[in-house]
Structure formats: C-alpha cells, structure tokens
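User: Sequence in, structure out. Go.
Assistant: Echoing your sequence, followed by the structure tokens.
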Amino acid sequence: MRRTIYSLPAWILLWIWIAGQSCNQQQKEKSGADSLAIKKNLVSPVLSPMEAIKKMRVENGFAVKLVAAEPLITSPIAMNFDEKGRIWVVDMDDYMPDTSGTGEDQPSGKIVILSDSNKDGVMDSRKVFLDSLVLPRGICLIGNGILVIEPPKLWYYEIRNDRPIHKTLVDSAYAEGGNVEHQPNGLLRALDNWIYNAKSAKRYRKEGDRWLIEKTHFRGQWGISQDDQGRLYYNNNSENLLGDYFSPGLGSANPNQRSVKGYDEKIVPDNRVYPIRPTPGVNRGYMEGVLDDSLRLVNFTAACGPVIYTSHLFGGEYYENAFVAEPSANLIKRNILKMDGYITEGREAYTKKEFLASEDERFRPVNLYTGPEGALYVVDMYRGIIQHKTYLTPYLKNEIRERNLTSPLSCGRIYKIVPVNHAPEPVTLLGDPAALLAALGNPNGWIRNKAQQLLIDGRFVQTAPMLRNNLKRVESPLTVIHSLWTLEGLDKLESADVLPLLLQNNWNIRMQALSVIPSVINKTNTPAFLAAFQRMIEQNDTLAAPYIGFLLPFVQPLNPGAARRLLLELTKKYGTNQYVAGAIISNLQNQEDAFYKESLAINPDSGAAINLQLRKLLSDREKAKNNSNAKKLAKDFPRGAFIFGTLCQTCHGTDGNGVSSLAPPLNNSNWVKGDKNKLIPIVLFGLHGPVEVAGKIYKAPEINGEMPGIGQNKDFSDDDIAQVLNYVRNSWSNKAERINAADIQRTRNKFKDRQKPFVMEELKNLK
C-alpha cells in the first residue's frame, strides 16, 4: 500500500491535498453554520424548581429532590447543618445585579435558618438570622455561635434563641485583597479541630473566649473538603481536584519554602467536562478550543465546591469519591480516588458523561455537601450571570444580553441527590453524651464529625474515660480516630493515649497518632516520642518518615540535639524521597545554606531530591535579596498596589514568583521588564496559551493557560492601569521605565476593535 501511494504522480498527490483542504474548509464552514443555528435556537427561560429537576440527568439509580427554593432562599452560596437538622444558608443577594455590578456594594446579603417542620425532607420555613451584609461568603457553626465572613472581616456571633446577641472580631484582615472570585472562603471545621479555608493560608481555632490564628498552606479558590483522615481537598477554576497527601497542620514551618511536596498536589489531572447542552455563555467562549463544535465547554473553567463523599448511603463504590461542581457547564463531576499510603490519586468516574448534568443554563451549582442522612446536597445559585465583572468580556456581556440572563436575581435552590425510592430520614443529634459517643463510629461521616464537634462544644469532659477506652477499638479505625481528636479538642489527650497507637499496623490510625503529637508533646514526654520516631526509622516505616520530618520543628525547642540527629538520619536514609525531602526542609528556616553542604556530604548525588529542593530554595532566596521596597512602591503607586493586591497577587503571588496551576512569574519577567508596547496589550486584552518567561515555557496545566485582560473593566481608569504596571515593573527584582496614562490610551486606540486576548507569537511581532 505504501509503495502504491509513493508511486502516484505528483499532480495527483497535489489534487488529493487540495481536495482535502477543501473538505476541511467545508467542514469548518458547516461547523460555523451549525454553531450559528445552535445559538439562534438557544433559549434560557427561568424554570420552576420542579421543571429544573426535569432538565437534569443524574446517574442511574439516583434521584434529585428539592430541599429549598425561593422565596426561602434567593442567592445561596454556602450552608451548614446544625444538630437539629436545620440548614443555615448564606444568601449573597448583592452579587452581580447586572453586567456592570451596579449596587454590588449594597448591604443586602443575609444568613437564614431553614427548618423542615413536617419532616418530609423539604424546608418549609425560615428565620433571618443576620441581614444587611455586604457580599457574605461563608459560615461555620461552632460553640454557642457562628463564624461569618463579611469581607474583609471574619466575625463570631454568639447565639441565643436563634438570634445574634454579641459579636467578636476574629480577624480584621480575613479577606484582605482579592476580588469577589478570589477571596478566602470555606470555613471547614476539620477533623483536627481547626477551621480551614480555601484561597487562604490561615487556619483558626476557638479556645474558650480566645481565637487562635495560625499560618498554614495556601489552598484552592472556592470550596474546601476533607476525607475521613482529615486531609484537605480543594481546586481552582480550571483544576478538577487538588489536595494534600499529609495532615493539614504540618509542613508550613519554613517561610523560605515556597511549596512543600505533598501539599497542593494534582489529585485528578483530567479537566475534561461533558455538558449536555450548548454552553456559549462562558467568558472566553469565542476562543478556539474553549468550546467544541457543538458549543459545549471542553474543560473546567469554574470548578468549585468540591466534597469528599464520606457516607454509606450511596454504597461502597461511592465512598470517598470526590464530587466537583462546574456552574459554567451546569454539571457535577464524580471522581474516583485511590489512596495508597499517603499518596492519593484520582480519575474521572465516567467517559464522556457526568454524574449530574442539566439542560438548564441557569442551574449554577456552586457548593456541595454531604448531609446528615448521607445525601449529597447541591447549592444552586440559580441565575444567569455567574462571571464577576472584574474579568467579564464583551463577548459574555453580549451572551447575557441576547438571552436575557440578567434577571431575575431572586431565585436560588438547594437540592439533594439520593438513591431512587429513598425515603426522608430526619437526623438530629442532641446533647446526650452517651449518644454522641456512640455516633463517633457511625458510617455517615457527617454524623461522626458532628458528634465530635458537639462533644467538644458541650465540654463533655466526663466522657474522657470512655473516649480513652475507644482508642483500644482498633477493629473500628474511624471510632479510634474520632475519639483521639475528641480527646484533643477537650484538652484531655495524654501521651499515654498516643504512644500505643504509633505501634498499630493500620496506617490510618498510625497517621492520626503522628498528626496529633504537636498537641501533646512536652519536655517530659519528648524522650518517649523520640524513641518511637527512632524505632520507625530503624524499621523502615516509609509511610511515617515524612511525618517524622514534619514533626521535628515541634521537637527542636524541647531537644535541639535530638531533632538535629533525626534530621540528619532522615537525610541519609530518605534523601532521595521528594516528600521526606520537603519535610526535612520545613525545619531549616535560614539554615538552608549550611544544611545543603551537609546534605551533599551525606548524599553526593546533586540530583537527589533533598539537594534539588535545597538548591531551588537557595536560588529563589538569592533572587529575593535585591527586592524593592514594597512600602515605598505602595506609597508611590497607591492604586497600583491596591489593584495588584486585588487582582494580580492571587495568581502571581505576593512575591511575584507565580502560583502553581495559575500563573507564571512577574518577578524577572521579560514581558514585565521589557517593551511596554508588548506589556500593555497583555493587561488590556489578556494573554492566551503558552508564554515564555525568563527562558522557560509556561503552559497548561502548569498554569491556567489564559490571563484575562482588564481593559473592559470600567472600574479601572487608564491611570489606574498605568499605576499597576509601574508597580509590578519596579517590584521585587524588576526595574523598568515608567508607563503613563497616555501610553494606555494610545494602545487602546491602536487595538480599538479587538476583543480576543493576544498569543505570545503575536506579541513578539508587535512594534
């Protein structure tokens, strides 16, 4: 066959090629015509909740049930269950009233309490707990009160008879900087009794009347969840699922360490989505590759609200599956996770289909939760506009206008997904200590977690002996784990409770025993824990090795010599393991230079993980030595500093060195420091696709793949844009000539008819 083809005359080959090109052109023209026909016939009417359910396709064997809808709720974005089975809902009523965001700063947000009086599974009444809030983002029930996010502040309200009686400012800078799409949220009350957040590097804990705030790892964008081992999961808009291999309270001790192996890992690398309707109403829908030929979104663009399913109601095959919402594509994805030691990997559950997908464009799932009876709860913001004005393109504005997606703004729903024919099962957990103790082993994760929280909130210290007895029930690991952390939360945990668990064969129990050590270690019991660590190393407990490394910062103040010896021993034995290497470096704040020499003596291979990571850290630190004065720059360019903090730093980092999965560096960037006539178009119109920065090509999934422009945002004047460019062009190690408003205007005029972002090759050819 190959000989026959090669023997054809050249003119025949040319004819075949031309015909092929003609066919391709016809296909493209047909695709364009089909797209126009699809758009012409695409309507998005406002549907009642029951009509909306009929438009949903859910996995076989499951049904979607309505839990609440307007007028009980109007723009729900987050929720919490209390022990009575009531739902506390955050209504962000002020979000994007129109495409210009007019009135977004008005105090119309609220927190409402929903109740189901007849126990049929449908909420039938509400109380307004708080109103007149501006863009509230999250809540967390704890103690005798509730945490409420109202940017930039985090408040704690004490509750009496379902009314706020006193409020305490927990953090005045909880959501400082960032825009509405890029501000902290979540408030997950985790297994380890701390409260964690998405889009944040802070964690919180209530101790009596005092609030503790600690630095932790920066995580995700919108929504956060945990598995039954307390490990955290999150995502960003274009990433299906990210997460941590290790317990959340560890590994953030060295501020010189920009990232730690085992945290912020790609759990599910596949970002393909499969809508069942055309989805032209996405911000970059006009760009090649964003939509397929049927105008359906190809990859995640608004991934949010992940939840790890930790109940029994769906059956064993669904246990610790990860569900992720995609409001721009009107769907919910299911991912199957595989946990091997401390490594977690995942894959999409289906090929070319989703767990739930809707034909209703206004179906906007933004958060997911496991409920008291084990159902999967879906918070549906039900609206046309989901994209914030900050990055709203003229294309999407037109889509919104053509299908009248601006109104109404008073709809919102909560659904639950249950097995077919599942009858409502009202669940309440009242303050009976014996019942709460029994609930610690319940197959439903929500019940286990809530029982632990209620025992702690009620200060049921009299349960300590029973909890301690539960630690012996190693045949029921979840009972052991929750009893362990309940003791910790009650401040009744002792080293004698922990040490035997370090000997258990079950890794999940051993992991929790290691994770809880910072809460109990002291001068007296340090020798016992050191002996346990030494035994684990000698027995080649590879799973425990990273944890030992993460724990040594807690050992060091108590026994510096022993901490040092163990650090060197880990380096010698596990220096080639990237996760142990990251744990070792977490101990080395400002000691990295000296330790690098020691490490090379122990592991001469310069390519060993410990040496590679140390060398990268030292290089980054060296680059930072000549950083400019941030305070002076903020004084010289106040609007520039504000806009950078609001828009830019969430993706590019406060240090300008970029954020993994989001954006490349601005520090020492040839685009930032170079020709202003190539930089200004990027900021005005955006940049799509791979980009070369300082000799390295950055492309998806290492970065988002697209930087949105802000030239269409009426909130920013030409002088504002000039200021932010001057701010980044002179921040960190950058030094470049100033840009003025006239430069911005001149670029606008030059590209006055342009809507789409630039690509790198196009920029290179600009004069």
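User: And one key feature?
Assistant: Residues 630-764 form a domain with the Cytochrome Bc1 Complex; Chain D, domain 2 fold (CATH 1.10.760.10).
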